[in-house]
Amino acid sequence: MHNLKKKNDKLEISGTNRNDVLLQLGLPSTKSSFDNEVWIYMERKTTSSQLKSLGKQKLLLNDVLILEFDTKGMLVKKDFLTKDNMNKLKISSNETEIINQKNTFIDNFLTSLRQKINDPLGVKKAR
């Protein structure tokens, strides 16, 4: 995928359909479907850096284009993310609390079943 930024500029919301996108960009890197269909295109360019950094690759370009289509196949939303945009994304630090820490009946049943499969005669406990 070359020049994703330029190809993104040619796509118009409510004026471009799936077939137009396929002609412009080809098949997406990833597809997802929830309420609407989402296609994700990725462009990444790296280069080998100087000898002093032991050949580590340097990231030059990391662009992501996210296209969302309605059920009729028309483009309804597009997002273009660059390497700089992605560095500014904030990740939530919230944690999910465990509601019930007690073992359920099914958990206890599966645990005892696993123990019986691993040690059908109960020999390992006796040692």
Characterization of the model:
- The protein has 127 residues and is of the alpha+beta class.
- The chain is 30% helix and 28% strand.
- The chain has a domain at 1-87: Beta-lactamase Inhibitory Protein, Chain:B, domain 1.
- The chain is built from five helices and four strands; from the N terminus they run ααββββααα.
- A hairpin with an 8-residue loop joins strand 2 (37-48) and strand 3.
- The longest helix has 14 residues, at 105-118.
Task: Describe what is shown at a glance.
The chain has 127 residues and is of the alpha+beta class. Helices cover 30% and strands 28% of the residues.
In the predicted model, the low-confidence regions spanning at least 5 consecutive residues are: none
Multimer state: single chain
Which class of secondary structure composition applies to the elements?
A: alpha+beta
CATH fold annotation of the domain at 1-87: Beta-lactamase Inhibitory Protein, Chain:B, domain 1
The residue-averaged pLDDT reads 79
Distance between the termini: 63 Å
Name the descriptors.
28% strand; four-stranded antiparallel beta sheet; Beta-lactamase Inhibitory Protein, Chain:B, domain 1; 127 residues; alpha+beta; extended
Layout of helices and strands, plus pairs?
Blueprint: H1 4-10, H2 18-25, E1 30-33, E2 37-48, E3 57-69, E4 75-81, H3 83-87, H4 105-118, H5 123-126
Antiparallel strand pairs: 1-2, 2-3, 3-4
